[in-house]
Amino acid sequence: MNGRGQRLRWTEAVLVFLLVTGVCLRAGYLSAARAQVNWEGLAAVAHAADLWYKAPEARLTEIGFVQPPLPALLASLAVLGNPHGAAALARPVWVGAPLLGLAAVLLLGLALHGGAPRWWAYPVTALFALNTVTFSLAAAGSPALLLIVLLLGTAWCLDRWAATGALRPLLIASVLVGAAMLTRYEMVFWVLLLAGLVAVVAYRAGGYSRLEGTLLAFLLPGCYLLAGWVVACWLIQGDPWYFWRHTFSGPPSGEPLLGASVYLALLACPLLLAVGVWLARRSRARAALASLTLLFGSIALAGLLQPLLGRLAGDAWSQLTVPVAAAMAAGYLLATRLLTGGERRSDRALVLLLALLAILLVGVATRLGGGLPRWPAQTWQGELAFTDTCQSEVAAAQSLRTELRPGERVLIVGWPGFAVSLVAGEGARVTVIPGPGDRALAEVAEPYAVVLAGWPADQPTPLPLSRYELRWRSGDWACFRASPGG
Amino acid sequence: MSVAQPQPHLRLLCEHPEDCANRTLTSAQRWALVVLVVLVAGLLAWRPVTTLLVLNAAAILFYLLHIGYKFFLVYRSLYRPALWGATPEELAQLRPADLPTYTILVPLYREAAVVPGLVAGLQALDYPPEKREVLFLVEEDDAETREALEHIALPLGFRAFVVPPGEPRTKPRACDWGLDVATGELLVIYDAEDRPERDQLRQAAWLFAQGPERLACVQARLNYYNPDQNLLTRWFTTEYSTWFDLYLPGLTGLDAPVPLGGTSNHFRTEILRELGGWDPFNVTEDCDLGVRLHKHGYRTLMMDSTTWEEANGRLGSWLRQRSRWVKGYLQTWLVHMRNPGQLWRQLGPRGWFSFQMTVGGSVLCYLLNPIYWALTVAWLLTHHPAITYLFPPVIYGLGLFCLYVGNFLFVYMAVLGCLYRRNYRLVKYALLTPLYWLLMSWGAYRGALQLLTRPSYWEKTEHGFAAPESAESASPGGER
Fold it and tell me: pTM (2 decimals)?
């Protein structure tokens, strides 16, 4: 660590964690009380509930491969006691709020260790944690927060490694990047980027032999985790790349993630490219300040651009906007810390320039169709961005509990059936399939006593439900029961 | 009336017979072993599957503890490195007059060829000649080495000491005779091929002066000057880097018993005499002595100074060396487990657990590994239901964890050893260490069998296949 860095005290770490977590928990509960949820966050919790409560005994092999496993494993903490009813909707914030608290502590520590003064580090941390984008994602329990924590943790560890040459941070960083890949498969690109950075630093420090050894050590845990996943996928699914193919088979079909990332880089973080080169010749302290500004700026800009990206690249990709922005900013921070040195100089001109560029960028983003998803006051009161109402699913779940008789099994067809299943709390008796397709038809052929199907009331049912009679409707959900003669 | 003193190498046997490996098993241990074998055989005959299931569960539990403890030691070493050493400024402040007298013991057997280089190397050590005594311990029947020493002009303080003939023919026996005539306040052992760092004696003297109370031993780190000779020496260097740079500092940091390395352990001579010297019947007398020091309440520290040795690059010779080490570890375990309750009281719960994991556990791991590898291969090839039955869900989960995570952690610890020692070019070979484990298990079975037939037989390690000059270019290590 350079001599200018300060230590993050335990007391401030604990206080920051408790404060951020507390505020976020409150907002999350307020949002859940209005039945406003983030589908990704709720899906992770429902996945975890399936994992632990679907079968009589918990079976980890149920985790599946389509969704990366780590969010569901982490969400296991949020399904303690097998929650059901409206209370289940508040469970995602159990995961999101502590993660936001942790991210805030990591960022504060990163800032202080990087040489930023406290008067600067605290506001930046507050802006990062309480801005409408990250705060909404955390309060709604989105797995994006896990990714941000992993990325910030990696950034901190690599920063420590670069500053001290110590092996322990490198060891932790290598585990964290492995975990990041099992949180979002697409993060493999971020890991490759980091590996490039580690390679440059190692080569500068000790030539090819050091590069080879350090890079192998850094990539080994991640590669091993991924290799284990590929082998498991092969043994269970019969196709080693099943999860990988599935990841890239969704929208946008013709646009790879790399394209989206470059697009994001060019739009959301042009500062990274322009100022990065300029800063590479400046001091570390200055680089840390700039990087932290960028970290906040890029996340805010990601929020501004999310609607635009969602329109252009599809929702699935736009969900990555915030973590990718955080990753790029953290990567930039690392790059500047690793590649620069020299004397500390005045930060005023730099901060002014960054502020001007940020204002300019906000203007451009707004013109391009972006915009902050919510105002802060609304967000902190639980009116979160990136959420939808699930009142229809709550109502359907309550009716379903009344409908089901002892020993009966139910098939839920339609999206988001996982929400109905979670709120109903009948995981052991429920099979959920996301949409009517070949598999749905086959499932219906099995003797389910009850079928809950979700599609608009004014459209004919796409399911072969001739043997079933309609019992009730709740929003977009229709409940059928097998007729006695069928 | 004077009481007849025992011969130096029998001092431990006479004064502390409970700590001497002259008998492999005590009668109580023999009975316990018989009862255990009969019990397991009976249970296998009565309920074979349940018995195997319980044994399997016990083995997997052991693996979990072993993996966890080893990784904890490594992680602790990286977090709080327990390597002690003086700065050059502190060393410079040591005045020759204040330095204690030092005895260097160098046991030699049929090593005439290395004598000139050895003398030059020891002479180069930075320590006042008038305070340094070097004793070359030569066996009486080793005329060739004796002649080599007679034909060289030995510097001031260097002399040859002829060890009288007798049994057992082991290195510790020679060392005991050397200890008997040593005059130094401090004492260290070097092997013939050793190349200690120049300031090592000063470092040790400084540590003994500044170190904690009841500090009895300072162990230097050992590493090899010929890692690039072949694949075996690369693996061996990787293993040594992990053992001496990460595991042992982790143990000293925990104040747990330290299985000392074979050379470069520096002692307070008086304490060594008080403990009865080395056990001549134990073929890893170093490991045994480390445990005995701890039992008697003395402390051992790791010194931030390296002694460069020659890695054994020939498979046959390597296997013989490994067999001896495993046999010695088993001897040490059996000796100190003669009274497990007393050992618990002497070492404390932490020390006792650490002893089980580092001394008994290491050997058990080598012995168990082939069984589990064979089971894994058999299951992959046959999916036999008997194997499936041995792994009910919880055991299966834990076993899978050991297979997937445990093996990885051991490989990764080897990688960390390379990085710590700045042997970056060896990292890729560390990835292949599972193949090296096969060899280790081979050596372990050989050693375990030899314990039954020739417990105190010393299989000498052959040296002299690599040039010691390469020590100059070896890496200092110390990356955390």
Answer: 0.80
